Amino acid sequence: MYAKGLKGIIAAETSLSYIDGNKGELIYRGTPVHDLAIQSSFEEVAYFLWYGVMPTKEQLNELTLKMRNDRILPAYIKEILALLPLDLSLMDVLRTVISSLVPGTNFKKPTIEEAIRITAIMPTVIAYRYRQHEGLTPIEPKNEYSHVANYLYMLNGQKPEKSHVGALETYMILTMEHGMNASTFSARVTASTESDLISAVTSAIGTMKGPLHGGAPTGVLDLLDEIEYDLNAEPVIREKLNRNEKLMGFGHRVYRTNDPRAIALKEKLLKMNSDDPWLKLALHVEEIAIHLLEEFKPGRKLMTNVEFYAAAIMRAIKMDPALFTPTFSASRTVGWTAHIIEQANNNTIFRPQSLYVGK
């Protein structure tokens, strides 16, 4: 059977996450992602995906300590960062730097220890390079901060606001894992050759760089900026739909109803600051857009997706749009590495067939 892009083809078994697009459900190892995002920290959910159980207090402390130690950049990585051209995108920098990490001694068998190391160092690389690119002095990690709080601290050079940490942590938990998406699939294909975990993550980063996978929140910002300028959402959206343009932040290839991640992000934003003008704009645009989408595309159920409120979160915490896809990658590293380990533990090399249509 031929399915373009392998759409609908089951290629692996996983116990990491389950998506029901018709019901708008996403679960990590049997637990609704909404519950995890509201009740747990980044470190707790990462542990849950890697080990299959929620950590005890002692286990969480051990993981936190390891991540704090592993997020420090080795001297040779700083040298690489100093030598890379400044016009190189952050995703290109990530791909290059992560590929230069020294693999663990157990080359052919990915380990959770390596997964922790890559997850811990990813935000440090992003923040270090971002400040370098902006002509600012890079900042070293601070032990007193959690994984997400330290990321914001290293980006901005000041103590992060609690509400900003909470909002970004919610986003990073919600985007940590999402089944057999393009980047996860590329990571598993690489792992299936018995290559190392670093190579598999590098494959995933290269895939995430593509705008069809990791670049949507920037398009949402453009839409909201355009509407904010005109102060009238309906004419702008109606004109776009008349031209048959894609409305960024609405509809999803998997979800045929509400995206559960968008619901959780919206809830977090409302708790942050319900009077924020940017949030009020997002709520207004969501209401108008869903109404018009039903008018123009009846029965399609094109609802708000995670990228819409991800953009609102990023704007609320004043994050540069250049950081959107790298930040997405920093959160998804947990899912990538969990899939790589799962693939290695029950491996068969991926070798699909192709349909010859030439002479």
From TrEMBL:
Q: Which SUPFAM superfamilies match?
A: Citrate synthase
Q: Gene Ontology cellular component? A: cytosol
Task: Return one GO MF term.
Answer: citrate synthase activity
Q: Which residue positions are annotated as catalytic?
A: 252, 307
The record's annotation in CDD domains points to: BsCS-I_like (cd06109)
Q: Name one Pfam family in it.
A: Citrate_synt
The record ties this protein, via InterPro entries, to: Citrate_synth-like_lrg_a-sub, Citrate_synth-like_sm_a-sub, Citrate_synthase, Citrate_synthase_AS, Citrate_synthase_bac-typ, Citrate_synthase_sf
Catalysed reactions, as listed in the record: oxaloacetate + acetyl-CoA + H2O = citrate + CoA + H(+)
- Which GO biological process categories is it annotated with? carbohydrate metabolic process; tricarboxylic acid cycle
Q: Which UniProt keywords apply?
A: Acyltransferase, Transferase
Write out the pathway annotation from the protein's UniProt entry. Carbohydrate metabolism; tricarboxylic acid cycle
The record's similarity note reads: Belongs to the citrate synthase family.
Tell me what this protein is called: Citrate synthase
* Organism, scientific name: Salirhabdus euzebyi
Upper taxonomic lineage: Bacteria, Bacillati, Bacillota, Bacilli, Bacillales
